[in-house]
Amino acid sequence: MHPPPPAADAMDFSQNSLFGYMEDLQELTIIERPVRRSLKTPEEIERLTVDEDLSDIERAVYLLSAGQDIQGTSVIANLPFLMRQNPAETLRRVLPKVRAHEDAHLFTQRVWISMFVQRV
After folding, report:
1. What Rg, from alpha-carbon coordinates, does the chain have?
2. Fewer Cβ in 10 A, N or C end of the chain?
3. Residue 30 falls within a domain, yes or no?
4. Are 2 and 21 in contact (CB under 8 A)?
């Protein structure tokens, strides 16, 4: 590996320097991902779309009730923001949904573990 490039105002654009960096770039491996996995069908986009007119609390409740797992995880990660914004509504409406979301995940984990243990 070559040392990091110098500051922008002192960049070395000599042929030897550039070829050295090119070699470093060629050493990197590129992880290819099928293009299809990143594309979304209209149905997938519709399923992931949430009404923009919902308040943050309403959006959180909706995502925890009917959203994808990753959307529920995002709501949980943003609980501190919701608590600062509207603590009473967060505790009354969002927190019970978070508990249900977490319970569902724990249940799923237990099922997977019991299936794995039975195979071993």
Report:
1. 24
2. C
3. no
4. yes
Question: Is there a contact between 101 and 64 (Cβ–Cβ < 8 Å)?
Answer: yes
d(CA 14, CA 38): 39
Structure-block tokens of residue 39: 């594309």
CB 75 within 8 A of CB 64: yes
**Residue 112's domain spans which residues?**
40-118
CA dist 90 and 97 (Å) reads: 10
Are 66 and 104 within 8 A, CB to CB?
Answer: no
The DSSP output letter for 9 is G
The total domain count for the chain is 1
Amino acid code (one letter) for 62: Y
CA distance 90 to 82: 6
Q: Could you read off the pLDDT of 2-44 as tens digits, one per residue?
A: 555 555 555 555 555 555 555 655 555 554 455 456 667 888 8
Q: Report angle CA 37, 39, 41 to the nearest 5 degrees.
A: 115
Residue 22 falls within a domain, yes or no?
Answer: no
The tokens for 89 are 């509504």
- The answer to whether position 57 is within a domain reads yes
